[in-house]
Amino acid sequence: MDLTLKEIGTVLSRPVSTGRTGKTVESIVIDSRKVLPGALFVAVKGEKFDGHDFVDQALSKGCIGAVVSRDIRLKLDASAEIFRVDDTIDALNKIAGYYRKKLRFPVIGITGSNGKTTTKEMVAAVLSEKYRVEKTGGNLNNHIGVPLSILSWEENADFGVLELGANHTGEIRNLCRTALPSFGIITNIGKGHIGFFGSEENILKAKTELIDSLPEGSTVFLNGDDPKLRLLKPKKVKIVFFGFSQECSIRPENSGKIKDTGMEMMINKTRISLYMPGTHNLYNAMAAIAVGVNFNVPMDKIKSALENFRSVQNRSEILLKEPFTLINDTYNANPDSMEAAFRAASNIAAGHSRLIAVLGDMFELGRFSKAEHEVVGEKLKKYNFSALFCIGKDMVHTYQAAVKSNIQFAEHFESMEDLISSLIKFIKRGDTVLIKGSRGMQMERASQALVTLRKLKDWGK
Fold first, then answer.
1. pTM above 0.85, yes or no
2. Contact yes or no for 423/412 (Cβ under 8 A)
3. Least crowded by CB within 10 Å, which of 63, 313, 324, 325?
């Protein structure tokens, strides 16, 4: 990072004390536990902690300055520079926006209802075959994570790949003011966060704020099989569609083959095997291929990047294949990603094993929650699930719908401990188990219990 305290002061319209203007800021952090000497600490007030309570701790570890929004009484006689602002998150974005303008490389912004993080990782992997690439850390895709990601990037990269998330209209536009994306990808338009957006039309409006924020003459990569995205006709940017439809310029020559290890497709006369299940991951890969082709990454390098790619943690992870198959998809859930996971699990089981769903509530659906949870219960039978273990107040509706559809076994639990106990007794060798729910449900606890069970139980032959 090439920023000085003087530059920080200029961005924030705050003067810097004499003798400190030339001091170099080595990093910018909001977590006092991650402070290294030379850092600038931004005191952010969160739901559980207030960064202002940790300014002293940050300074004691070598911070050369702090950004605060209220008066603080320092216990240390520190020589650090204290910038008092009205809003520290706004200040963080202003600093990141200034730094972004200093970066000379293009940034690819990625948004959509599902698949953002996996697509981001795949795009970065493909581009890394030829270029130096910076990317979003983890899924830091909001008004705090985006500026922190940008501020962690080195200036000598060739590309930046940035994930952009939102659950209200206007948020993508605000993130783009900081990120200044050069190119864009929209993975799909679904029902994620529909409780906040109010409708799928508003979701489309929110996601296409990315297109509106791109420079004239840029390129946006769109899922050409998504009925809402396929109808878009932006005037100032070029569209590259990816998908199975005839009008897509990045299109497999087959419909996607299911393999024991994941999925396979033939594209541009190149056979590409993915070590992850589900047609939805073929779409993520196609987005990455579209970007790679656009930026002249050789097809054999694209193939290598994708075939060496592995599932992002808690997303479409096949944790076990013996004595039963365990699909850990516990990072998050919405109606569309639930059905995608059902389809992937059904393809893996292929009618040869019992298919068991272990599900937790889908959050942020608002007034649509009851109906959408009922639809999930109805779709279990469609995808050949024989058993449902579920938890959460809204999963009651899924349970009731599953029972009405005559699923062989269904039970709703009040505690994770009871669910795990019953599941352990139920599961047999050869079963295929899908575990999924919204992040706050912490469904990975069930996955961890089954991984442990494999080691403790005598499964026979």
1. yes
2. no
3. 313
